[in-house]
Design a protein that fits this description.
The structure holds 2 protein chains of 2 kinds. Helix content of chain A is 33%, strand content 9%. Chain A is built from 4 helices and 4 strands. In chain A, strands 1-2 form a two-stranded antiparallel sheet. In chain A, strands 3-4 form a two-stranded antiparallel ribbon. In chain A, β1 (54-61) and β2 (66-74) form a beta hairpin. In chain A, α3 crosses α4 (165-179). Chain B is built from 16 helices and no strands. Helices cover 74% and strands 0% of the residues of chain B. Chain B has helices at 14-45, 56-87, 94-117, 125-130, 142-165, 170-186, 196-231, 235-256, 269-280, 282-298, 306-329, 333-339, 343-372, 385-420, 425-432, 435-464. Chains A and B meet through α1, α2, β3, β4 and α4 of A and α1, α2, α4, α7 and α8 of B.
């Protein structure tokens, strides 16, 4: 065989492999440190846990040309203002519930998981809960025993997973907190539940597959409680 | 040495005897993956089927976990298979490898029983430690994580010590570095955080950097050996290609991790980085196809093990289409905004895992079948050759059918749920109830049956191939 050209030689590609791998990994480490500034709770894109004391909405942002979370006035979860520590403890319990009940093997969270049930990224804002007055309690009741509640017209149901009331409330807190994460416009075109004050007459939750009502643009209203 | 065509582990070296154990469990878990996949698929069509007994979440957990474990068992078996020949030295600490095999296997059985019988737990850390972690693909409870880490460390010790005492080839060097990375990355998935963004950030380190980087290179190593033994390709060529593939694979795959950081709370620059590098990810897979086809052509497809060669070529194409083309189709953020979290991912996942990994492990099953029968002739004129051919045909027909059906479901979902309805609960079910989606799920299930038939034929074939064969393969000795 003729002499191997340098670009076809084993040693050239061995060195290239080492340098490319090392270089890519160093860039990844650098980007990981930088990304942490954005995704730590209270960072540039992920809110602190006490955000659950506020109204969280999701609206189209003309300037950025994407849907973004909009934080409104005080609107404490279950009517109770929490400190950052209390809120963190509650969200932690909720996150633990989502793992202990293996939610991710039917649902997606931030779009990741299985595809047998709806995405939970903006579950807190889903118009299927009817109205914001009944939302919190509807979610708790649903989580505790979904088996006998109306889901959809195709017969797919969530099983009863032994979720206690405490766990259900914590899960709602986790979902509210998650809905406030800036996910760069995912999901696109999501029409959030009407949260304006005063609220319109409540519709029954998750009824026939009708198109959800589009919420009228609402300005911040005085906080309840 | 036993007579030709008679199954006898005396035909194998120490590492290969251990590999046979890994392969046996691997093949059984492959069956478990198929079974639970079929149950989960059926639940899309009949939602009340096993409702409250084996819910979709349980079946799907077992479906994906069985896959991860059977492929890992297959890879570990593959490494033990090549180890002694590659190092020119008996496996160092083989007894430890054997011990760990049994411990790992008992642990897998316990984890599976807990998934099946306990399923979920209360929201406290005890559940995370002893029942499940509830994070897709790496649900295994923490105690099992620790067990996996110990097992992998032992495996790593066997490999490094054997190569160190024997010969440290180019394949060995890449393999050792890759196993180190594979082990280190797993640690990134072993913690709890309430912050779902941080959770998913590190979770992808494990899932992506395993599946789209370290697994690919691991398979590159064992398939390099495969090309040497099935076709007699010269080592220098195989190893040069291996380095090229590592450079391209890690060069695109490490930062290609960014395509999982589009929508989880991570900063906007990931849209650019993830889009760019993941667009490059098919490049090494093209290189692998060129490499395999070129070598097969140069050697005029002459091999003493046709099934293994067949699966090797299938691996090159399956990897390219499943991981490369199907991945690229929805990897750019402009399309991924609509396809993220839909059946597109399932379509890609099916073809990629099967094309890139299942094929490679099946190829090794055939190497093992050949040698355990005294290195019999498994090429032209093989008795009962129809079985491996039909097994392969049905597995591929089934897999392509499932992939295409899921892709159609994914298109429909992106359009109706994501683009039109905006991903609300109503939008989700509007898409799930649409006739196009339902039809796709029916075809997925029918294809699943074809795949199941292929699996049954594969098992039958692996247990019987070469049984009545009396011609030795050694007459066609390989080039150095």
């Amino acid at each position: 065989m003729a002499q191997t050209l340098w670009w076809a030689s084993e040693s050239f590609w061995r060195k290239t492999a080492i340098w490319v791998t090392g270089g890519s990994f160093i860039i990844l480490i650098f980007l990981t440190f930088d990304t942490m500034k954005y995704i730590t709770a209270g960072g540039k894109q992920v809110p602190g846990y006490a955000i659950i004391n506020k109204r969280v909405d999701y609206q189209f942002n003309e300037a950025q040309n994407r849907y973004l979370p909009v934080i409104g006035p005080d609107e404490p979860l279950f009517g109770k203002m929490l400190s950052e520590q209390e809120a963190e403890a509650l969200v932690t319990k909720g996150k633990l519930t989502t793992q202990a009940k293996n939610c991710m093997e039917c649902h997606t969270l931030l779009g990741n998981g299985a595809y047998y049930a709806p995405d939970l990224t903006k579950a807190w804002l889903d118009p299927a809960w009817g109205s914001k007055e009944v939302r919190e309690e509807s979610m708790v009741a649903f989580l505790m025993d979904p088996s006998d509640k109306l889901h959809n017209s195709i017969g797919r149901r969530m099983p009863k997973l032994g979720i206690t009331e405490e766990e259900a409330r914590a899960t709602v807190a986790f979902l509210k907190w998650m809905s406030a994460i800036n996910t760069l416009g995912f999901p696109h075109n999501f029409k959030a539940i009407d949260q304006s004050d005063p609220a319109p007459a409540s519709a029954p939750a998750a009824s026939a597959p009708a198109t959800p009502e589009v919420a009228p643009a609402a300005d911040a209203a005085p906080a309840q409680q | 040495m036993a007579a030709l065509g008679i199954f006898d582990t005396a035909n194998l070296n120490g590492g290969q005897k251990l590999a046979m154990k890994y392969f046996a469990v691997s093949l059984a878990l492959f069956g478990a993956q198929v079974l639970f996949g079929m149950l989960a698929g059926l639940q899309y069509l009949k939602p009340d089927f096993l409702y409250g007994v084996l819910d979709f979440s349980v079946n799907r957990t077992l479906h994906v976990n069985a896959m991860v474990v059977w492929l890992l068992y297959g890879f570990m078996g593959g490494v033990y298979w090549i180890l002694e020949e590659e190092a020119g030295h008996p496996v160092v600490g083989l007894w430890l490898g054997n011990l760990i095999f049994w411990i790992l296997t008992v642990a897998v059985v316990i984890v599976v029983l807990v998934y099946l019988l306990v399923q979920v737990g209360p929201a406290d850390m005890k559940t995370i430690w002893f029942i499940m972690e509830g994070r897709e693909y790496i649900e295994a409870p923490r105690w099992a994580d620790i067990g996996i880490v110990v097992s992998v460390l032992t495996f790593f010790f066997n490999v490094v010590a054997t190569f160190s005492k024997g010969r440290f080839s180019g394949i060995a060097g890449v393999l050792v570095m890759d196993l180190l990375a594979l082990f280190g990355i797993y640690l990134a998935g072993m913690f709890f955080t309430p912050n779902v963004s941080i959770d998913q950030f590190w979770w992808w380190w494990v899932i992506h950097l395993w599946v789209e980087a370290t697994w690919e290179v691991l398979v590159g190593c064992i398939m390099a050996y495969m090309l040497i033994v099935t076709l007699g390709v010269r080592r220098k060529i195989v190893e040069t290609w291996l380095y090229i593939e590592v450079a391209l694979m890690f060069g695109s795959g490490i930062l290609g991790l960014g395509h999982h950081y589009f929508w989880i709370g991570t900063p906007e620059y990931w849209l650019t980085i993830g889009g760019f590098f993941s667009a490059l990810e098919p490049v090494p897979l093209v290189a692998m196809v060129v490499h395999a086809v070129f070598d097969a052509g140069v050697h005029k497809l002459k091999s003493t093990n046709h099934p293994a060669l067949g699966w090797t070529i299938a691996q090159a194409f399956g990897n390219f289409f499943g991981a490369g083309v199907w991945g690229f189709m929805h990897t750019l953020p402009q399309i991924n905004l609509y396809t993220h979290g839909t059946q597109w991912s399932a379509s890609h996942g099916h073809l990629a895992f099967f094309g890139a990994y299942a094929t490679a492990v099946i190829g090794f099953f055939y190497l093992a079948a050949q040698k355990s029968r005294g290195n019999v002739w498994m090429s032209g004129g093989l008795v009962g050759a129809w079985k491996w051919k039909w097994a392969m045909a049905f597995l591929w027909i089934g897999m392509i059918g499932m992939t295409v059906a899921l892709l159609i479901a994914g298109y429909e979902q992106s359009q109706i749920e994501r683009a039109i309805e905006g991903s609300t609960w109503m939008g989700y079910f509007a898409a799930q109830g649409h006739p196009w989606f339902v039809q796709a799920m029916k075809w997925r299930q029918i294809s699943g049956w074809a795949f199941t038939l292929g699996y049954v034929l594969l098992v039958w074939d692996l247990l019987s191939i070469g049984r009545r064969e009396t011609r030795p393969a050694a007459a066609h000795a390989h080039a150095d």
